[in-house]
Amino acid sequence: MITAQIAESYLALGRCAPFDRLTTAELLLVARHVHHRGHAPGEVILPGGMVAERLVVVTGGSARLAGEPAPAVFDAPSALFGLPVRCDYIAGPDGAQTLCLSKPHLFTIARECPDFIVGLAALRAEPGAAASA
Fold first, then answer.
1. 74-86: buried (b, 16+ CB within 10 Å) or exposed (e) per residue?
2. N or C: which terminal CB in the chain sees fewer CB atoms within 10 Å?
3. How far, in Å, CA of 51 to CA of 9, rounded?
């Protein structure tokens, strides 16, 4: 059964690279495993120096990284490769709404959906993309 929350997650993810590369079935699978979180203005979304235990997708509001706008999807290198997050990701002045995908689910998607990994790599290669996208 597809709940309203899964449908909402599906639509939000489908508007965001690299999730836009997934098939309908793949995107529904991901949408079933994300967790919605709300962050107050200035709240740390993902702390620097630690290894990320989740991939974060900003679906509302904004996030900042070292005072600059953060990418909509972060911190894949940390979650996938065990690299420390370079500095705190902070919710913007209006806060942030996020979808979080835990590391085990991220690895499943990476293994079963190679286009997703290609999309993450493409995000990192875009001019002006944050180094930790």
1. bbbbbbbeeeebb
2. N
3. 25
Give the C-alpha separation, 5 to 104, whole Å: 21
Tens of pLDDT along 37-74? 999 999 999 999 999 999 999 999 999 999 999 999 99
Q: Read off the pTM.
A: 0.86
For residue 104, say if its preceding peptide bond is cis, omega within 30 degrees of 0.
Answer: no
User: What secondary structure, in 3-state letters, does the chain show?
Assistant: CCCHHHHHHHHHHHCCCCHHHCCHHHHHHHHHHCEEEEECCCCEEECCCCECCEEEEEEEEEEEECCEECCCEECHHHHHHCCECCCCEEEEEEEEEEEEEEHHHHHHHHHHCHHHHHHHHHHHHCCCCCCCC
